[in-house]
Amino acid sequence: MDRIDLNLRKILVISTFSLLLFSLYHFIKWYMDYNLRTRRIFKVIRNYKTPAHLPLIGHALQFMGTPTGVHSHIIRICFKYGPNFAVWILDHIFIVVGKPDDVEKILQSPSCLTKNELYRFTHGIVGTGLFTAPPEKWRQHRKIISPTFNAKILEGYLPIFCKTGNIFVDEILPNNVDKKDADWYTLFTAVNLDVIMQTAMGIDKDVQRKDVPFGQWLENAMRSCFIRMVKILYYPDFIFYRTRMGKLLKKYTYKINKFTEEIIQEKRRKFKEDLDNNEYRPVLDEGSTRPIGKKVFLDFLLELDHKGMNFTDKDLRDEVNTFFVGGTDTSAVTACFFLTMMGMHQDIQEKVYEEVMGVLGPEGQPTVKDLNEMHFFERCLKETMRLFTPAPIILRKNTGGDLKISDGVIPVGASIAICFFYIHRSDLYWNNPLKFDPDRFLPEEMAKRHPYTFLPFSAGFRGCIGQRFALLNLKTQLSLIMRKYRIYCDAYKSVEEIQLKSVLVLRPIHGFKFRLVKRQQ
User: Fold this and answer.
1) pLDDT class for 295, splitting at 50, 70, 90?
2) Of 261, 309, 304, nearest to 269 (Cα)?
3) DSSP 8-state symbol, 345
4) What's the distance, Cα to Cα, between the start and end of the chain in Å?
5) Per-residue DSSP letters for 42-62?
6) Cα 215 to Cα 502: distance, rounded to the nearest angstrom
7) 355, 390, 388, 304: which is closest to 475 by C-alpha?
8) How big is the CA angle at 395 (ends 53 and 139), to the nearest 5 degrees?
9) To the nearest whole number, what is the mean pLDDT of the chain?
10) How many CA atoms lie within 13 A of 474 on its CB side?
């Protein structure tokens, strides 16, 4: 018995010692690799300002928290260490860039077309559509999709902008007159989803009247994606999808994708029926990839697929979801911030109203020419997007050679963060930056500034493909609202009072607090 106990003790000692040696070996190996990586990090960041950090993990703990806390911290360190500085998380370097010359160089560089790996957490919603696609796929799809945004096609969408806007103004808004607690984000998401459905998809689902909760699905899904991006513990799938947040993301992603897939299948069926009955009118010129007339985006992709481009259902879903997210969420938020600014600045609101009435009259429907004549209105919209940039920060990766900028080098493999929110509110580029001043966008004032100090739609190779579409739609929608309603905002007296958070797209922490009162014509 004693001999057995002795042998067991020997086995236990040897096993423990072996485990310790194994652990020590792997720790030494990891530490040597880590030292090699961090030597590279410190060699790079010594030319940049950088916040205080911890050994081994760098700034990782500073970027964990709620959407409110993370946004506030990012903006705080941008203003403290900007315009250019560096942070590192584990073995990843982020060069944060806020100088317009450097931003232009990055956004115009073929080496910086790749989106940062963190965007993979949005793939459940937008897949690898134009927003997140790797460069090769992005080049191919951008070339295919760009013609559907030419000026002639966009002008043809104006009757749809007017129709959906009038339903919103005459049927939806009267139910929310003088309400302080209206869910403005959801209401504006619905009207913009209606626009995208009819223009890009060619289907009228009457979303506004049927109260489709797409905005709520999107809000919850994007919030889950953002929290996952800033919490390192959520990076592994096997951990994240066992949490409440992961289960919520699955739930809302499923709803969004099911909604999209039903639309695609409906359009595929119609496309096949028209082909079988010889009723289909081609979207494309023979032997061309340019659209004829005013056919919609999804028709265009389906015909290219029929002609051998081989778009899978997932390819179509990714691009359609990208349009839904880009065309509904950002437009809804921008419209709500615009009306908040109008409510806070009654004198400016009155000038916009007078301009709208001078161009449209009490009953006229806007044309492209009309919208182009509303110069003060457009300046107010631009000033809103300056102060409340829909996408406050974007992330890229340098996959080419080392890129020289004013403060040093962005090495190959490094990530790049461009904080538009900082650039748009920095007193380096804007006088009294938190004042709402539409005259900043007078032509003579714009000529004094670097063009990359105002980037509400990003810029360069991967700038927003739908910015002209978005502006035409917003100007149509908001001009119809301004003509019928006066806006008040009792909750906020200054821009500084509006506390913000980010769920990939900017939001006010306490919601949009304006109210509408019907004008007496």
Assistant:
1) low
2) 261
3) -
4) 103
5) HHHHTTSB----BTTTBTGGG
6) 16
7) 355
8) 155
9) 87
10) 27
Cβ-proximal residues to 14 (8 Å cutoff; 6+ apart), any chain: none
Q: Where are the beta strands (DSSP E) in 210-368?
A: none
pLDDT at 41 over 70: no
Q: Give the residue carrying structure tokens 């739930």.
A: 251
Write down the pLDDT at residue 487.
96
pLDDT recorded at residue 251 = 95
- Band (456; pLDDT cuts 50, 70, 90): very high
Ramachandran angles phi, psi of 92, nearest 5°: -105, 130
Pull the structure tokens for residue 12: 């236990």
Task: Provide the 10 A C-beta neighbour count for residue 179.
Answer: 12
d(CA 471, CA 441): 15
Token pair recorded at residue 498: 């509006």
pLDDT digits (tens, 9 = 90+) for 393-449: 999 999 988 899 998 889 888 899 999 999 999 999 999 999 999 999 999 999 999
CA 287, chain centre distance (Å): 35
Q: Which of 368, 354, 400 is nearest to 469 (CA)?
A: 368
Residue 405 pairs with which residues in a beta bridge? 408
pLDDT above 70 (res 253): yes
Collect all residues with Cβ–Cβ distance below 8 Å to 304 and sequence separation of at least 6. Answer: 144, 284, 289, 311
The model carries a pTM of: 0.89
